[in-house]
Amino acid sequence: MEKIIEVKDLTLTYPGGTKPTLDTLNFDINRGEILTVIGKSGCGKSTLLNTIAGYLHPSSGEVLLNGETIVEPSWKIGVVFQNNALYPWLNVAENIGFGLNMRHFNKAEINVRVDKLLEQIQLADKKDDYIFSLSGGMKQRVAIARALANQPQLVMFDESFGALDEFTRNDIHKVVLDLWKSLHLTFLVVTHDIDEAIKLGNRIAIMTPDKSSPMKIIDNPYFNIDLEDIDSEYIKYKNRILKQIV
Ligand SMILES: Nc1ncnc2c1ncn2[C@@H]1O[C@H](COP(=O)(O)OP(=O)(O)OP(=O)(O)O)[C@@H](O)[C@H]1O
Questions:
Q1: Please, which residues bridge with residue 8 across strands?
Q2: Which of 10, 13, 19, 21 to mutate to test the pocket of ligand 1 (most atoms within 8 A of CB)?
Q3: Which of 150-161 are b and which e, b meaning 16 or more Cβ less than 10 Å from the residue's Cβ?
Q4: Within 13 Å, how many C-alpha atoms sit on residue 164's CB side?
Q5: What percent of the chain has pLDDT over 90?
Q6: ipTM, 2 decimals?
Q7: Mean pLDDT to the nearest integer, 109-135
Q8: Is the CB of 31 inside a 6 Å radius of any atom of ligand 1?
Q9: What is the mean pLDDT of residues 14-23?
Q10: CA–CA separation, 80 and 144 (whole Å)
Q11: Are residues 203 and 223 part of one domain?
């Protein structure tokens, strides 16, 4: 397995904090996988994601992208937040192309990338619409397309689907999995929803309160499971994850 991200002895204590929020974490993200990260509220999931993104700096240890220490945010890592953070004064196409514009890509290249993504997120007909006119699910699809427009090496999702109703969330899960498959992407998905972690993750990283093993990564036999295939073995698997979180 080729590693895209290496987390080495990662420790982070917030200024003024008495104990580390992240304490000596060690794990890798493999190229082409979806790693979901699950853990109790406040265990440090967003802190971990923000550190990998380069928004926060480790107190000690490091995170490497393709063998190079991450020291600042870059287009190589895309992030989709829960509140989507889209620009209301730009239309859908302009939001998706925003990062490419900032990087001074030429207009023709931007249009090609944006149009392709609009097809993939099934919003080609909303290209010229402003953000306020979109539903919550559509906004998240635009946020995903905006993150993908830069063709990043890793895309991270920070509770990106938590505010959506169940039907919309199921639709978005399908969009995410289709994009991952067709574009051969690598995703890290932070969630507090165990079913979502199981649905979306090739592997599941469990952030535990166990100081000697703060991060346990397990294989997931139920990746992309259909709701109708949920059986008693699935429930047992889910409960085993739950027990390690609390
Ligand atoms: N900027 C900050 N300064 C100080 N402490 C912080 C800061 N951001 C987060 N924390 C603390 O760090 C801990 C981990 O927070 P974090 O948001 O990473 O957890 P989380 O697992 O993502 O939680 P949730 O699932 O509720 O979003 C919490 O105790 C939080 O209060």
A1: 62
A2: 21
A3: bebbbbbbbbbb
A4: 25
A5: 87
A6: 0.97
A7: 95
A8: no
A9: 93
A10: 6
A11: yes
Q: pLDDT tens across 132-166, in order?
A: 999 999 999 999 999 999 999 999 999 988 888 88
pTM, full prediction: 0.94
Q: Whose CA is nearest to atom 9 of ligand 1?
A: 47
Are 173 and 62 found together in one domain? yes
> At 230, which CATH number?
3.40.50.300
Last residue of a domain, one of 122, 151, 180: 151
Residues 24 and 54 grouped into a single domain = yes
What is the per-residue pLDDT across 39-51, written as a single tens digit (0 to 9) for each? Answer: 999 999 999 999 9
Q: Which of 11, 12, 13, 14 is the best mutation target for the ligand 1 pocket, counting ligand atoms within 8 Å of the beta carbon and taking the most?
A: 14
* Dist. CA 100 → ligand 1 center (Å): 31
Residues 198, 234: one domain?
A: yes
Q: How far is the CA of 46 from the centre of ligand 1 (A)?
A: 7
167 and 232 share one domain:
yes
pLDDT surpassing 80 at residue 84: no
Where a domain ends, among 123, 151, 179? 151
Domain span at residue 63? 1-76+157-246
